[in-house]
Specification:
It is built from 17 helices and 19 strands. The protein has about 500 residues and is α/β, with parallel strands linked by helices. The structure holds calcium ion (CA).
C-alpha cells in the first residue's frame, strides 16, 4: 500500500472514531462527509471533470436489476437461460468480474448509487419498509444526490421503476433530483399486475397516484422508451427543435426494474417458451428464468429506442444488479457462495457492464474491484461534472476508457441492519484486495477468506491455528468503521420522537 493512502486512511478512521465527529454525524451527516474527504486524495483517482467536454456530454442510461444473481446471464455462465440483449451490452463494452453491490439487500445499495456514500453513512443501513418497527433506514435529507448534481450540470433527469428510498417528502424522487418519476415508491410489489404492496398502491407519476394496467416490467420498459423518444435530439437545421431548449439537454435515465425480485411472475408466454425449450427444468427455476428473459426483452426494447432515436453513439449504458440472487427463488449465483441477504460473495458480487460506442472498448473485461456507489462519481465524470470530494466512492471511468488507473487500495465496508434473527443489529464485511473478513450473523465469530485462492469462500482462515496477519488488520479496520458509524441516525423522524 502506498504511504499516502495509508496515512489518509488513518486520518479517515481517526476522524470517524472521535466522539465529536460522531455527534456531528448524528446531527447532520456532513461532519462525517468532511472526514471522508481525507480517505482518498482526488489526485489518485483523477475524478476530474475533464474527461468529457460539455459539448459532447453523453446521455446516460443506468439499468438496475433487482436481485439478479452473478450467474443469471448467459454471458456470465448461465446455461438454462438466454439473455441476448444484456449479453449484447456485455459484448459491446466492458464487463466486470468483481463488481459489488454495497449491500446484499435493496435499499442500501440504492442509497449508495445515488449518493456515492456508504449507505450506513447516509442513514440507510438496512431495508426501508412501510412500518416503523421493521424499517431500517431514512435517507439523510442533507445527502447530495447524483440526479441533483446532473441537473446542475444541465441534464434532464428521470427515474422509471423502483424507488425504495422513502415514501414521503422530503424523500420522494422529485425531492431528490429527478425531473420525472414514473414507477413505485415501495420496497416491492406483491403482484406484478396489480402492483400492490399490503393492499396499497405505491405507483406514481411524479407525485400523482396512478393505477396503470399491465406487467410492471412491460410498464417500465414502455415508459422508458417513451421518455427516450421524447428526448430525441434535433436533426441539424430543425427550426422547431432550436426553439426547444429541453430537446438539446442530455438525459440521465435511471431504470431500476423490480424484476427478477419475487413474486416470480413471468408472463405466461415467456414461461411456456422456457418449458418448451428446457424439458425437465424445475418449475420454480423455469419461472425465474422466464422472468429474467422477459426483463432482458424489455432492455432490448429500451436499447432499440436509443438506437432508433439516433442517440446510440452518444449514450453511456450501464447495467448491474442491486444485490445477489435470491436462492429461495432458485437464483443462480454462479460459483459463488450463498446469495441475497448474506455477506458471502453470492450476496454481494453482481454482474455489471458498460457500453459507450467509440469510448469503451467492445468486448473488454476488467478484474478491478468496484462498488455500486462508485457509479456516482463515474457517471459525473463521464458527464463532465465534478464529483463531491466528501464521498467514499471513486470513479472508475479511466478503467472503462482503457486508461491507466492506480490499483484499488480502499478498505471496502459492507453492513446490513435487520430485524428478526438479526434483532436490529448488523452483519458486516470488510474487503481489501483478495482478503475479506465477514460476520454473517450478529455476534458470530469473524470469518476470513482469501478470494484469490478461495473464491468460493470454503476455507475459513480465521479458524486456522495460525491466522494470517491480515486478520488483525482487517478486524481493526472493521471495528473502527462500526464504532464510528454507530451513532448515525437511520430512524424516521416519527420513530425518533417515540424514543
Ligand atoms: Ca434487491
Amino acid at each position: 500500500m502506498k504511504r499516502q493512502d495509508k496515512v489518509s486512511r488513518r486520518a479517515f478512521l481517526r476522524r470517524l472514531s472521535t466522539g465529536a465527529a460522531a455527534a456531528a454525524v448524528a446531527a447532520t451527516l456532513p461532519g462525517l462527509a468532511g472526514c471522508a474527504a481525507d480517505a482518498a486524495p482526488q489526485a489518485e483517482d483523477a475524478t476530474t471533470p475533464s474527461e468529457t467536454p460539455s459539448a459532447t456530454r453523453p446521455n446516460i442510461l443506468l439499468i438496475l436489476a433487482d436481485d439478479l444473481g452473478y450467474g443469471d446471464l448467459s454471458s456470465y455462465g448461465a446455461k438454462d437461460l438466454r439473455t441476448p440483449h444484456i449479453d449484447a451490452l456485455v459484448a459491446g463494452g466492458m464487463s466486470f468480474s468483481r463488481f459489488y453491490a454495497n449491500c446484499p439487500v435493496c435499499a442500501p445499495t440504492r442509497a449508495a448509487i445515488l449518493t456515492g456514500r456508504y449507505p450506513a453513512l447516509v442513514g440507510v443501513p438496512g431495508v426501508i419498509r412501510t412500518g416503523d418497527n421493521k424499517s431500517w433506514g431514512y435517507l439523510a435529507p442533507s445527502a447530495r444526490t447524483l440526479p441533483d448534481m446532473l441537473k446542475q450540470a444541465g441534464y434532464d433527469t428521470a427515474i422509471v421503476g423502483k424507488w425504495h428510498l422513502g415514501l414521503a417528502s422530503p424523500n420522494l424522487p422529485n425531492d431528490r433530483g429527478f425531473d420525472l418519476f414514473e414507477g413505485f415508491l415501495g420496497d416491492m410489489m406483491q403482484d406484478y399486475y396489480s402492483h400492490r404492496r399490503d393492499g396499497k398502491n405505491y405507483m406514481r407519476r411524479n407525485r400523482e397516484t396512478i393505477d396503470p394496467k399491465g406487467h410492471a416490467t412491460d410498464l417500465f420498459t414502455q415508459w422508458s422508451c417513451d421518455y427516450i423518444r421524447s428526448r430525441k435530439q434535433a436533426a441539424p437545421g430543425d427550426a422547431d427543435a432550436d426553439a426547444d431548449a429541453n430537446i438539446k439537454r442530455p438525459f440521465f435515465l435511471y431504470l431500476p426494474y423490480n424484476a427478477p425480485h419475487f413474486p416470480i411472475q413471468p408472463p405466461r408466454d415467456y414461461l411456456e417458451k422456457v418449458l418448451k425449450r428446457q424439458p425437465g427444468i424445475e418449475m420454480k427455476r423455469a419461472k425465474l428464468v422466464a422472468l429474467i428473459e422477459h426483463m432482458d426483452d424489455g432492455i432490448g426494447k429500451v436499447v432499440a429506442a436509443i438506437k432508433d432515436s439516433g442517440l446510440a453513439d452518444n449514450t453511456l449504458v450501464i447495467f448491474t444488479s442491486d444485490n445477489g440472487g435470491d436462492l429461495n427463488c432458485k437464483a443462480d449465483n454462479g460459483p459463488l457462495r450463498s446469495g441475497k441477504g448474506t455477506m458471502y460473495e453470492g450476496g454481494l458480487r453482481v454482474p455489471a457492464c458498460a457500453t459507450w460506442p467509440g469510448r469503451i472498448g467492445a468486448g473488454s473485461r476488467t478484474d478491478r474491484v468496484a462498488l455500486t456507489m462508485d457509479l456516482m462519481p463515474t457517471i459525473l465524470q463521464a458527464a463532465g461534472a465534478k464529483a463531491p470530494e466528501n464521498i467514499e466512492a471513486r470513479s472508475f471511468l479511466p478503467t472503462l476508457l482503457g486508461k491507466p488507473q492506480p490499483p484499488e487500495t480502499r478498505y471496502l465496508f459492507f453492513t446490513r441492519r435487520e430485524g428478526g434473527k438479526y434483532k436490529g443489529k448488523t452483519i458486516e464485511a470488510v474487503m481489501h484486495g483478495q482478503w475479506k473478513l465477514l460476520r454473517n450473523l450478529p455476534g458470530a465469530p469473524l470469518e476470513l477468506y482469501n478470494l484469490n485462492e478461495d473464491p468460493q469462500e470454503k476455507t475459513n482462515l480465521a479458524a486456522a491455528a495460525k491466522r494470517p496477519k491480515q486478520y488483525n488488520e482487517l478486524a481493526a479496520e472493521l471495528d473502527h468503521y462500526l464504532k464510528a458509524t454507530k451513532a448515525i441516525e437511520w430512524r424516521r423522524p416519527s420513530q425518533r420522537k417515540e424514543k
